[in-house]
Fold this sequence. Notes:
Layout: E1 8-11, H1 14-25, E2 30-33, E3 38-43, H2 47-57, E4 66-68, H3 72-78, H4 83-92, E5 97-102, E6 119-123, H5 128-137, E7 141-142, H6 157-164, E8 170-173, E9 184-187, E10 193-196, H7 202-209, E11 242-244, E12 254-258, E13 273-275, H8 282-297, E14 303-306, H9 315-326
Parallel strand pairs: 1-8, 2-8, 4-6, 5-9, 11-14, 12-13, 12-14
Antiparallel strand pairs: 2-3, 3-7, 4-7, 5-6, 9-10
Helix pairs in contact: 1-5
Amino acid sequence: MKTGLETLILPAGEAGAEAAARTLAAGGLVAFPTETVYGLGADAANAAAIAHLYAAKGRPAFNPLIAHVADIAAARRIGRFDARALRLAEAFWPGPLTLVVPKAEDCPVVDLATAGLDTVAIRIPAHEVAQAILRAFGGAVVAPSANISGHVSPTLAAHVESDLAGRIDLIVDGGAVTVGVESTIVGCLDAPMLLRPGGLSRERIEAVLGTPLARPPVEAESCDSQPLAPGMLASHYAPRASVRLRAQDVAAGEALLAFGSERLPGVDAAVAVMNLSPTGDLDEAAANLFGYLRALDAKGPRAIAVMTIPEDELGEAINDRLRRAAVAR
């Protein structure tokens, strides 16, 4: 892969969007904020650019990518939407929802980006910086999280720089993201299926559909199996330190990722403590999750102990990311 690139960092704005569009059109890689996390963008129709993206991230080539577009008309040029998929798109786009639908007949998204599947994952991001870049570029942009594959996802431009400086062409700095966990992914093939919980809750989606979301028959159980959608590898979103879930105490050498007001035994001797939400607010916890994991990991603990987090609303997405972070590597 290309290394030793000079990674330019530009502030968000018209000049940054235009520079991003030029870089994408030339086959380069651009990191930019969405409302969920920072994405690493490449032209979805350029196989060479996507190969470079996989190499820059160290991402398995069997893990499909999400195509980001500016509006529903653009989405329907790359995917086929049945009535339920269109209902979800109209209800929640722009926003933190990805829909997996059959490819359109002349889908411009290259096979490398869809990992050889006959489906394509599509999202319309709500972030004004992402929208400006997509409008300036004029085509679909694949954009997985802008980090080394498997590392904690980036919620600040500084996180992107830490992982990918020298590997990518441009970072557009739009400040901190607001949602903080990746998009929810729903497969719209037969019965709508929750493929990955994320920044849009299951309850809100089911309210629009009027029916429960199905669950995938098989999740990725190892790093060698092909996932149905992005973010379904068993080990994902992982810090360097091991992660211990549902902690009831803090052991020697551990850092604590806390939630709520409870104080655990051993907390005073913790390497470091960060609280996702002292008031138990799941939206606040989701926004802080990846940034706090990175900050605790930087302290060099033996492990990161994580307090119990409820499974309702955005807690489902938070716990999904934490379970993947805790998988033995």
